[in-house]
Automatic annotation (TrEMBL):
UniProtKB keywords: Aminotransferase, Pyridoxal phosphate, Transferase
Pfam families: DegT_DnrJ_EryC1
Stated name of the protein: DegT/DnrJ/EryC1/StrS family aminotransferase
Cofactor: pyridoxal 5'-phosphate
Organism: Nonomuraea harbinensis
Length: 399
């Protein structure tokens, strides 16, 4: 059975709407968002979706995270606490602003930052906390918000894998107002890269409710150039602008986002039901999950063997998600700028035993897709059951 992949048309929602959007922009003659209308419209639509005042479109998720670090304004050498299980795009912007990443350990049930581990690392040079909603599961951002407020820190939410992830009701009850991930941090970041829920190839957005942070990020994304004030450069900045072509495709994709996430939720819940009670595996909690990937944890280890068995059956599964947690990445050994180790003189990333064990032994991820059918779910359930409960006589998961 073939599993649709996000690298192929069968696993994407790219169609006539995106083609029409591109044609509209190309025929307009204006491909640059400084003078065009598409990127500004995308920003309005994303801000409205999240109920925040500002969205700023930029060239990638990594660029968005760089803008978020710029907004947090660390002094050189200041520390930003983040997770070792994430894309390197979360961490690179910390270095780009001459700040120091401090890795806190994760909750072994879902790989998201453990607020107690974060609290233990807050010191005099800590400037911000960067949380990642890993694989689309809500990170514990309410607890991190409280920590950040108690210590005067910025909170950044990396929502690159978490389009329409929902946060738990703070009152603990069945509140009716959905709170989306990205609405608790001072700044949140989204990605439109090829492998995300929706895509324009590459692209990113930041969200913030703060006018001053929005101004700083907008300036940095456009060479420090306040376009309302002549040709004058108010601040240091780069060119992180999104093009009109990216924005037009992203707007067409945004219209399809609710359907994408709903379909992923439907099949992920089917798989959860089929795997209920299987020994030796900790299943993900479905509440609020946006199912970028479908992660499982094998507390006793053996993730690589399980992934190998699933791959042999044609299922796109991988152990660990990363080759090594980012606190073990080779980058920390080398110079950062030229031959200099600045800003990492004397730096050694902290051990993160839970993250290390997840990546090496216990975490397995299955690529997820809005075009999976019950047949895909059935095959995954059958192969996982064969591996984890070989003598199972479960009648619902036969051949
Ligand atoms: C993809 C991703 C990024 C980086 O986004 P790009 O658009 O690829 O630059 C950052 N953080 C996380 C968690 C991601 O999944």
């Amino acid at each position: 059975m073939k599993f649709p992949s996000m690298a192929e048309p069968e696993g994407r929602t790219l169609g006539d709407e995106e083609v029409a959007a591109l044609e509209r922009v190309i025929r307009s003659g204006m491909l640059n968002s400084v003078w065009g209308t598409e990127a500004r419209a995308l920003e309005r639509e994303i801000a409205e979706l999240h109920g925040v005042r500002h969205a700023i479109a930029c060239s990638s998720g990594t660029a968005a995270l760089h803008l978020a670090v710029v907004a947090a304004a660390p002094d050189p050498g200041d520390e930003i606490i983040t997770t070792p299980i994430t894309d390197f795009g979360t961490v690179a912007p910390i270095l780009a602003q001459n700040a120091v990443p401090v890795f806190a350990d994760v909750d072994p049930s879902d790989g998201n930052l453990d607020p107690a581990a974060v609290a233990a690392l807050i010191g005099p040079r800590t400037r911000a906390i960067m949380a990642v909603h890993l694989f689309g599961a809500p990170a514990r951002v309410d607890e991190l918000r409280a920590l950040a407020d108690a210590h005067g820190l910025a909170l950044i939410e990396d929502c690159a894998q978490a389009w329409l992830t929902e946060l738990p009701d703070p009152a603990g009850g069945g509140g009716r107002d959905v709170r989306l991930a990205g609405t608790v941090g001072d700044v949140a970041c989204l990605s439109l890269q090829q492998w995300k829920h929706i895509t324009c190839g590459d692209g990113g957005l930041t969200l913030t409710g703060d006018d001053e942070l929005a101004r700083r990020m907008r300036l940095f994304s456009d060479k420090g150039w306040d376009r309302s004030a002549g040709r004058s450069h108010a601040a240091f900045g780069l060119n992180y602008r999104m093009t009109e072509l990216q924005a037009a495709v992203a707007r067409a994709q945004l219209a399809k986002l609710p359907g994408v996430v709903a379909a992923r939720r439907r099949t992920a819940v089917q798989l959860l039901e089929a795997l209920q009670g299987l020994p030796g595996v900790r299943l993900p909690r479905p509440e609020g999950h946006a199912w970028w990937l479908f992660p499982v944890v094998l507390p006793g280890g053996g993730a690589a063997e399980l992934a190998g068995k699933l791959r042999a059956a044609g299922i796109p599964a991988r152990a660990g998600y990363l080759d090594e947690p980012l606190n073990h990445a080779p980058v920390w050994q080398g110079p950062i700028y030229g031959a200099s180790r600045y800003p990492l003189q004397g730096y050694a990333p902290r051990p993160c035993p839970e993250a290390e064990r997840m990546v090496a032994e216990t975490l397995m991820v299955i690529d997820w897709n809005e075009n999976y059918t019950p047949d895909h779910v059935h095959l995954i359930a059958r192969e996982m059951t064969r591996f984890l409960a070989p003598s199972s006589s479960r009648s619902d998961i036969g051949d």
